[in-house]
Structures are given as C-alpha cells and as structure tokens.
Amino acid sequence: MDFYLFLGFILFLGIGFGIISSTPLGPINLLVAENYLSKPKVRIVPFLCGVILIDSIFGYLTFWGFEKFLSDYKFVGASIGIFGGLAIIALGIIGLYQQYKGKHDPNKKIEIKKNIFLKSSTASFSKGFILCGSNPGFIAFWGWVAYNAKTWTNQAFPDFEINFYNLILFPIGIVIGDFLWFGLFTYLLKRGARRYSGSMIDKIRTFISWGLLALGIFTIYASFDFKDKTLIKIQVGKVNEVGTKTGYINLKGDTVVPFSKYQHCYSDTIKNFGIVRNLEGILIGIDYRERVLFEIFELDNGPDYISEGLFRIIKNGKIGFADELGNVVITPQFNCALPFKNGKSKVSKSCIFHQEDEHTYMEFKDYFFINERGEIVE
After folding, report:
1. Residues 346 and 362 in one domain
2. Which domain holds residue 277?
3. Which DSSP string do the residues of 102-150 spell out, in sequence order?
4. Do you find a cis peptide bond into 40, omega within 30 degrees of 0?
5. Helix crossing, 44-65 with 121-133: angle to 10°?
6. Are 260 and 323 members of one domain?
7. Are residues 95 and 164 in the same domain?
8. Looking at the structure, do residues 177 and 258 belong to the same domain, yes or no?
9. Burial class (CB in 10 A: 0-12, 13-18, 19+), 119
C-alpha cells in the first residue's frame, strides 16, 4: 500500500508543478484566451501540444538528472532551493508591482498577433516546442522543481528509491496538470466574459503573483535546515545485535524512529548520518530526516569498517566511498574495491565475487589504484 502511495505522490507532484508551470500569464496563456474568443480559430492546439511536451520532457530530465548526479551534494541542492525561491519571489513581486502601479487598462481589449501560428500543424507544434524549450527562465524553473520534488519525495517516503521507471509518473502528471490548467483557464474565460478584457487578466495575474510569492518564501525556508539534527539510539535489553529492538529518539525524548521501523540500528547517535538495516535486510545510510543516502557495503554480516576516514558504499550496484560524515567522496563507479590503505585503494571495473561460508572475497581483473580523491595513482 505504501508503495502505491509513493507512486501516487510522484504523480501528484507532477500534476501540481504542471499547473504551476502553466499559470504565469505570459504570451502562451494570452494566446489561449485570444484564440477562444476569436473567429475564425487559429491552429493553437498543435502549438500547445508542443509546449506541453517540452514541459514534461524538461520536468523528467531535470528530476532524473538531479537524482542521479547532484543528490549526493547537499550544498548544491540547498543553493538551487534558495536561488530558485528568490527567483520565484522576484516573479511574484514584479507581477504585483505591475498591477498596483496601474500599468494595465482594465477596459483595454488585448490584441495578440496570430502570425506566431503557422499553416501547418507540424510547424505550429514545432514552434511551440522550440519557443518554450529555449526559454532560460523555463530551464531554471525546472531545476528549482527538481530540487523540491526530490526533497519532498524523500521526506515523505524515505524507504523508497526514485528510479528511471517510477519517475515516468512525474512527466505524466505534468501533462495532466498542463491540460487541467488550460481547461480551467478556458472555462473561466467562458464564465467570466464573452469579451476578453484586461480586467480579467489583472485579477488572475494578481492571484498568481501572491501565490508565487508565498511559494518562493516557503522554498527558501525549506532550504534551510532548522530541524533538531541529533538522534539518540534506544534499545530493549543490553545485547546489541540484529534482532534486538532498536530505534531513535531526539534530544527532547520524543520517539523519532520506532522499534519496528528497521531490523537493526547500528549508529549510537545520528547527527550527519547513521547506519541501519532496513526491513529488506539491506544496510543503508540515512540522515536525521531518515532520507536514504546510499547503501552500505556489507562486510562479515555488518557495515563496512572505516579505514583512513573512508568506507565503502553502493549505489546502482557500483561501489564508491563516503567519509565519516556521510559525504560521498568518490562517486560509486567500481565493480569491486578494497578499503584504503596507505592512501590508496585497489579497485576494478571487472571482478568476480566468491562466497565461502559467511565470507565473501573479490577476484580482481584489470585492477588499478586510486587515491582519496578518486584519481588513478601508481
């Protein structure tokens, strides 16, 4: 059941951000309105399909790219959230400024040049695709979306991992959100006035500007971490082994991680990150918000030992290294790797694992050595 809620959450985020991406009342929404009231109708449907398609593609690529390449770097994510929030606030302020300075004549009929549309449906579709996709602000918006969508998904469903396949629901949601907005916008035009006038645009623009302002403030607030960052391990009994009931409380004594949440909790305290074994029996690294950071390399039925400040982690089946604070130092990219010794680690992208009783050892092929920065050394 939780997995379906997780999938539904991704779809819901796509719908929400699809609506948000469509609502700013720029040329596209004005063209929709003008087309609705004009006679004869122009070829706006292919144009809008091009806009919606590039919307969904950008949404998917930025979310997937952030998850795959940038999610390990907390500073990058926080920076995107802060600057993205400031940009959204700026859009809201500009919209409100224009409204309250009286730059719009409520009695003025808005005229839109229809030469943006071409006679061919294919050409009109291509024009919508290219015009929307080449907008720098559009690209920046979806970068901001990727940070927030990734953060909110991990906070709501820390036990599930976003991947190439379940993320397809996100662009599907964007398409639904785009159609919902344009359908609602047309309905409002139909109910609001037979003649398309500036007063209606002003009211909707003011509402959206206040919404953008609130959303930007919330994004900046969420980018700064005000939550209590220390969790303390609790357990039933004195024996600390797998099967013992373990969990975490915060400094106030409130239960944050109940006994039934994980098979076992290894870390005595969690400040930056901690190690737990999930219900599927996999060792994972989590932060104090219980967001899954990476999988821990298992050694002798327990987490990998820290050697020279680094330990092995796994992501997408590849081995890399993280430090004692849980920061990814060497991106997972090797099929096998040994702990660091004398500043070097023996690694390979081709190896065979052998199992003897409870112990596993690696047979390296075409191995080489790397330093703590991941650089190849002699």
Report:
1. yes
2. 227-295
3. T-S-TTPBP---GGGS-SSHHHHHHHHHHHHHT-HHHHHHHHHHHHHHH
4. yes
5. 40
6. no
7. yes
8. no
9. exposed
Q: How many structural domains are present in the chain?
A: 3
List residues bridging with 313 in a β-sheet. Answer: 296, 320
Q: How far apart are CA 142 and CA 133, in angstroms?
A: 11
8 Å CB contact between 341 and 307: yes
Residue 350: helix, strand or coil by DSSP? Answer: strand
Determine whether 254 is exposed, middle or buried from the number of CB atoms within 10 Å of its CB (0-12, 13-18, 19+): exposed
Which of 262, 278, 295 is the last residue in one of the domains? 295
Tell me, yes or no, whether 370 and 257 share the same domain. Answer: no
Which of the listed residues 268, 295, 322 is the one where a domain comes to its end? 295
The per-residue DSSP string of 178-243 comes to HHHHHHHHHHHHHHH-SS-BHHHHHHHHHHHHHHHHHHHHHHHHHHS--S---EEEEESSS--STT
- Where in 324-370 does DSSP place strands (E)? 328-334, 336-337, 345-348, 350-356, 359-365, 368-370
The pLDDT confidence band at residue 256, using thresholds 50, 70 and 90, is confident
User: What six digits make up the tokens of 329?
Assistant: 């130092």
* Cα distances (angstroms) measured from residue 259 to each of 165, 274, 279, 328: 32, 16, 12, 28
CB atoms within 10 A of CB 333: 14
Report the C-alpha gap between 57 and 284 in whole angstroms: 31
Q: How many C-beta neighbours within 10 Å does residue 295 have?
A: 20
Q: pLDDT tens, 113-164?
A: 444 445 677 777 887 787 776 666 666 677 777 777 777 787 777 667 777 7
User: Is residue 216 domain-shared with residue 321, that is, in the same domain?
Assistant: no
Q: Are residues 71 and 201 in the same domain?
A: yes
Encoding tokens for residue 93? 């302020």
pLDDT on residue 106: 52
Q: Are 191 and 243 in the same domain?
A: no
177, two tokens: 């959100």
Token representation of residue 158: 């820390």
Average pLDDT score over the chain: 77
The model's pTM is: 0.55
pLDDT at 297 over 60: yes
